[in-house]
Amino acid sequence: MKARPVRRCKRPAYPTRLDVAADPALLERHLPEGWKRSARLAAAAAMLAGAGTAALTPGCASGPPAEVAPIFDHGSGRGALGCVMVVPPAFLSEEEALQVISEVLAEHGFTASGTAPALKGVTFAGHRLNPEAVTYADQFSSTRTPLVPDFFDAARNVAVEFVSTADYFPLGGEISDMSVQSYDLKGIAHSAAGAVNKHGSGVYFGALYDPTASVKFDVDYPREGTANYREEVEAWQQKSREAVDAAKEESKELLREQLKDFVDWLKGQGVI
To answer: What dihedral do alpha carbons 7, 10, 11, 16 form, nearest 10°?
Structure first.
């Protein structure tokens, strides 16, 4: 039997932590009559209710451990830049990805709550050097970067980090000492999720990554010296851009698949 993460489960008949967080007076309204007649028990219940809501505040070190979703496998999450590469990979920008994330999560009632808070206790040694690198200063390895999620819904304490190429070095990606820089975005998503799982508290966290769909374009670059060389170059460049755009659309669809799995996971946690 192969172990798999739980993605769906029935909503419990009793109030969950999120129910109490959304309605702090819920426990007080349902105190047993015997408890109400005892000042000591009533005071203990009030303290319990207050602790239940405070624990869900992101960055609260004394709160319950963060609930961290698995990494959902849709897309290779790998790519490279540099050297004599003519057609670059179709990396998604933070803005492009956040638009997709916001649209999909909005369909399920999630709303971004302005500027997201940094997750307390979750930091990364930015710019982890490749063990074989000799051209970069060691000072990079001492820089600690806090994790500020790209999407945060304060009402439900749901945080989402999208790992893009812009996050790669701050979140610990290795710098190459060669002319080609590789990006293992899925690997960084795994390490980000692991860090939140180990040090985070009070949030339901999901790490998504740029699927990095392959650019399907194998047209040879025009040979210099032909009669219509300039026109041929312009036509080649246009086809190259179209190929990259098509790959980006594929990446967006794969990102939506990651989000669908994340939403299913949230349902399994009772958030939805």
So the answer is: -70
Residue ranges with strand state E in 84-186: 123-125, 144-146, 151-153, 158-163, 180-184
Contacts of 22 (CB under 8 A, 6+ apart): 155
d(CA 263, CA 269): 10
Tell whether the model's pLDDT for residue 239 goes beyond 50. yes
Burial 190-212 (b: 16+ CB within 10 A, else e): bbbbebbbebbbbbbbbbbbbbb
CA distances from 108 to 98, 104, 121, 199, 263 (A): 16, 7, 29, 28, 8
**How many residues comprise the chain?**
272
**DSSP string spanning 204-232?**
EEEEEE---PPP---PPPPPTT-TTHHHH
Half-sphere exposure of 67 (CA within 13 A, CB side): 20
Where are the extended beta strands (E) located within the chain? 67-68, 78-82, 123-125, 144-146, 151-153, 158-163, 180-184, 204-209
Reference 217, options 83, 90, 92, 75; nearest CA is 90
Per-residue pLDDT tens for 124-151?
876 655 555 555 444 455 567 899 999 9
